[in-house]
Amino acid sequence: VTHSIPACIGSMVINSKQLDNESPVSVFAVNKCYVTVQDGTFFDGSGFAALVREGYKVRSDVNITLEFRTTAVHGVLLGVSSAKVDAIGLEIVNGKVLFHVNNGAGRITATYEPRGTKSLCDGKWHKLQANKSKHRISLIIDGNLVQTDNPYIQSTSADTNNPIYVGGYPADVKQNCLTSKSSFHGCLRNLVLTKGQQAELFDFSRAFDLRGVFPHSCPGAEH
């Protein structure tokens, strides 16, 4: 077995001596155990998860669904870019959700702004669906649809070839469809990218790079 166990371990005794887990000599990818826990992946606001090392090709159509929970009003949700301008990006900026797409001719954005006193950064779970179909893009948050006009109707394919970065991205990586550099602080779950009939559920524990991200469990309440 070469991978770690997604679990909480406590009160470990070796040769009648209790180990002190409060002050270890070194720590790698170990987080607190929470009194109340929920399914999902916890992002501590310092890093990101990197998926699909060989690069994800968005091309003409993609449908992204995920659920998020946060109390922060800024944070990167997801970005897939290319060395050129082609890219897609999902982010929370000032409490709004933005879905950006650039098929090569220019960036277009669908923006969801909560109405009245409602907030997306209330520490409760919210469902997000972002859809790109050729030149059309739409965003559905908790069942509320936002669409945007795209003047570049001839340009239909986002020719991306970089990994999918979730919750943030490394400082040396260019993201052409993200305006924020803030890493996401909160929990994500059920990330699915669908192309045609092919739906792929992404398991964060299989990411090729994880920094400040703890798969399998979220604290029951923000702390």
From TrEMBL:
Q: Which residues form the Laminin G domain?
A: 38-218
**What Pfam family is a match for this entry?**
Laminin_G_1
Q: Which domain of life is it from?
A: Eukaryota
Coiled-coil zones: none
Q: Which SMART domains match?
A: LamG
Q: Which InterPro entries match?
A: ConA-like_dom_sf, Laminin_G, Neurexin-related_CASP
Protein name, as recorded: LAMA1 protein
Q: Which species does this protein come from?
A: Himantopus himantopus (Black-winged stilt)
Q: What is the lineage of its organism?
A: Eukaryota, Metazoa, Chordata, Craniata, Vertebrata
Originating gene: Lama1
